């Protein structure tokens, strides 16, 4: 239900005074849609307010521009204007600094979101270690001749084992890169921090990547630097 005429004029008058700039009917109608005011009601209210002298208007051809009465506003003197300009300049500078800070934080967030978290690395590391251990046991049995397999099956297992070792090496390097970044200039004792997070290096649990790598047939080992 649309507001009554008096209420409509009050809403339109408040809007015109707050804007304090030339407005046509369409400007006002678009802004006052949230009050369920139709363009015809806004036009009627603007004309009524102008006729009663509560606002002023100027005609440009067929179009009318409405504006708040300026005699109701306090006009700052030269000193006040200078202070306002100075304050505005400071606020603009602060705004630019805030925008720069926000941009830097957003960039940092995007960068962090593109990397694995320590928890994700730990989960992948644990899963990979389990898979490597299973492959190692199978490979040892194959080499001992406990189970006879076809050459193609043996090759598939060796390829899979080699791939897991490569993944282990890659994940280990990724973890080191992330860990070094996180702990760089870290104020606390790194060893205590590591224990608090429950992080264990291969050496802490008696594992050696090199020992597992040595189980790979010579022709399938990665070249140095790969």
From TrEMBL:
Query: Listed GO cellular component terms?
Result: condensed nuclear chromosome; DNA recombinase auxiliary factor complex
Where in or outside the cell it occurs: the entry states: Nucleus
| A Pfam family assignment | WHD_TBPIP
Identify the Gene3D superfamilies for this entry. Answer: Winged helix-like DNA-binding domain superfamily/Winged helix DNA-binding domain (1.10.10.10)
InterPro entries per record:
Hop2_WH_dom (IPR010776), LZ3wCH (IPR040661), WH-like_DNA-bd_sf (IPR036388), WH_DNA-bd_sf (IPR036390)
**Coiled-coil segments on the chain, per record:** 77-145
Top-level division of the source organism's lineage: Eukaryota
Q: Where is the Leucine zipper with capping helix domain?
A: 149-206
Q: What is its main location?
A: nucleus
Q: Which GO BP terms apply?
A: homologous chromosome pairing at meiosis; meiotic joint molecule formation; meiotic strand invasion involved in reciprocal meiotic recombination
Q: Which residues form the Homologous-pairing protein 2 winged helix domain?
A: 7-68
**What's a Gene Ontology MF term here?**
double-stranded DNA binding
Arranged from A to Z, the UniProt key words for this protein are: Coiled coil, DNA recombination, Meiosis, Nucleus
Q: Which family does it belong to?
A: Belongs to the HOP2 family.
Q: What is this protein called?
A: Homologous-pairing protein 2 homolog
Output the lineage of the source organism.
Eukaryota, Viridiplantae, Streptophyta, Embryophyta, Tracheophyta
């Amino acid at each position: 239900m649309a507001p009554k005429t008096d209420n409509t004029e009050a809403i339109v008058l408040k809007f015109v005074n707050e804007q304090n700039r030339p407005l046509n009917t369409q400007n006002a109608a678009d802004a006052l849609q949230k009050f369920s005011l139709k363009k015809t009601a806004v036009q009627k209210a603007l004309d009524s307010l102008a006729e009663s002298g509560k606002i002023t208007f100027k005609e440009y051809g067929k179009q009318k521009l409405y504006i708040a009465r300026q005699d109701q506003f306090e006009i700052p003197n030269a000193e006040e204007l200078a202070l306002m300009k100075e304050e505005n300049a400071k606020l603009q500078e602060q705004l630019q600094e805030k925008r720069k800070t926000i941009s830097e934080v957003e960039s940092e967030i995007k960068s962090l979101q593109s990397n694995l978290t320590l928890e994700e690395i730990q989960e992948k590391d644990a899963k990979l270690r389990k898979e490597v251990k299973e492959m190692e046991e199978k490979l040892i049995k194959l080499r001992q001749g406990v189970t006879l397999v076809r050459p193609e099956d043996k090759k598939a297992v060796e390829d899979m084992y080699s791939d897991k070792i490569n993944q282990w090496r890659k994940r280990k390097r990724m973890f080191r890169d992330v860990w070094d970044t996180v702990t760089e200039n870290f104020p606390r004792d790194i060893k205590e921090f590591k224990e608090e997070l429950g992080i264990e290096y291969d050496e802490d649990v008696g594992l050696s990547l090199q020992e597992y790598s040595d189980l790979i047939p010579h022709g399938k080992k990665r070249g140095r630097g790969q």
